[in-house]
Amino acid sequence: MPPRLRLLPLPRRREIVCQQAVELVTDYLEDALSRADRRRFEAHLAGCPHCTEYLAQMRATIELAGRVTPEDLTPQMQDEFIALYRQWRADERREG
Amino acid sequence: MQEDTDSELLVRLRAGDEQAFVILVRRHHAALLRLASGYVPNLAVAEEVVQDTWLGVLRGLDGFEGRSSVRTWLFRILVNRARTAGLRERRSIAIGDPGRAVDQSRFDAAGAWASPPERWIEDADDRLHAAKLAGRLRSAIDELPERQREVVTLRDVDGLSSEEVCSALAISESNQRVLLHRGRSRLRQVLETEFGRA
To answer: Of the candidates A32, A53, A64, which has its C-beta nearest B119's C-beta?
Structure first.
């Protein structure tokens, strides 16, 4: 009786579909996929231009996020920080 | 002239060197302010949180044992304070949604793309356009649920490693990846919606 079960498709060996691929992108980029999953993911990409584009867009999104620039410290704020430091030193001396 | 590392500056700071403090603040202020901004309603409150963080740094100087990087330590202090301040200001935290990377409706019954990703990357090559994309991305990051925003800001904007982020936020590697995945997926979707063309 058990041999018949082998005829059923084994889920672990099945090819992945697009909807699954998009959920694996971060694990793929973070190098957190098992070797088997990585192979399946890459096999899917090789045959799917849409998911290839999707992966490229995720990479571009990350790259663009790295270009988001913060406000620099204004001279006025720097003075406030120096005042903060001096206040702390003065308190320290009084307590210590 | 080569600048001192954070650890070297900390040694100088412990010895009472005011200039070391100024260099440290200048180096990390922007990243701290940006992260703080996501928790609180306006810049003024964010600046208070950052000041409060530096005061926490000074007070905690003797307790810092160097088991994590200085930067990780700074972010950990900031996150704790910003969360408290955010609660006070907003009285509610956005909880991460269990959403999918891409809306279900865009796939057919077999799970293949029915409405494939619209193209927009090519526009990012153009400098003017890239600035527009980055600007839109910035507000999209601010609109992410809190946990996702923390992870995406630290990893992708500030460039911390996954280890540093896990340590700063006290979360596991797998949680960090889930939050990163949801956050990045959401950002990609925003860019596609605004700039994509089929």
So the answer is: A53
Model confidence, pTM:
0.74
Which residue from A30, A54, A71 is facing B30, i.e. has the nearest CB? A71
Interface contact A19-B112, CB threshold 8 A: yes
Structural class in CATH, domain A2-70 = mainly alpha
Q: Where are the domains of chain A?
A: 2-70
DSSP for chain A? -HHHHTTSPPGGGSPP-HHHHHHHHHHHHTT-S-HHHHHHHHHHHHH-HHHHHHHHHHHHHHHHHTT--PPPPPHHHHHHHHHHHHHHHHHHHHH-
Q: Which of A14, A64, A84 to mutate to test the interface with B (most CBs of B within 10 A)?
A: A64
H helix runs in B153-196, sequence order: 162-169, 173-195
Asked casually if ipTM beats, i.e. exceeds, 0.90, the reply is no
Band of pLDDT at residue B39, cut at 50, 70 and 90: confident
Q: How far is A1 from chain B (nearest CA, A)?
A: 31
Which of chain A's residues have a Cβ under 8 Å away from the Cβ of B58?
Answer: 85, 88
What are A26-82's pLDDT values in tens digits? 999 999 999 999 999 999 999 999 999 999 999 999 999 988 776 667 777 788 889
CATH 3.40.50.12780 fits B6-90, yes or no: no
Check A89 against B184: CB less than 8 A apart: no
Angstroms from A6 CA to nearest CA on chain B: 24
Between the two ends of chain A, the Cα-to-Cα distance in Å is 82
Burial grade of B151 (CB within 10 A; 0-12, 13-18, 19 or more): buried
Q: Contact A61/B136 with Cβ under 8 angstroms?
A: no
Nearest to A66 among B30, B51, B159 (CB): B159
- Say which CATH class B104-195 falls into: mainly alpha
